[in-house]
Amino acid sequence: MIPLELYADLCALMAHTAGDESKELAIAAEHGVSADDWRASKAGWTAKMSDPADMGKTAMAFMPLYQAAQAKARGGAEPCSLETYAKIHAEMAYRKDPLGNKIHYMLVLAENGMSQPQWLECEGYWTPLVGSDVILGQPNPKFDPERAQRFRVLMQQESDRVQGIVR
Question: Which of 18, 44, 68, 166 has minimal CB crowding within 10 Å?
Fold first, then answer.
């Protein structure tokens, strides 16, 4: 298997391949990884991250590497604006169909021109910044109080819009 760091880098570069193996293999080859090594690594790392006996250790090691690789791949830019994040977040939480059923999140993403991997990247980027100043009882060093306040305002506006509330 290739090292976890390289696996994270390749996964970030492959985020928009929609699971097309030929595209994945081309990206792997561009980075010196053979098709056989990529397939074995993808299967191996996926199995390890899914193994209950691992207790999430590999996934916890992978995520910061993957998020750093995503940031590098997009040149450090935000994956989506805070306004877009709040809009989609509110629509996922509050949109209902004519019968009052919650709208499926994939429909919300499609209507906003965003794939699931893109949304996961936006969530991974924004949640630590605007979610909470404490995570699992520990200070969150990424928390940004100013952006968190802006997010709360945007969420209220978007939630009101989705629910048809006029203030």
Answer: 166
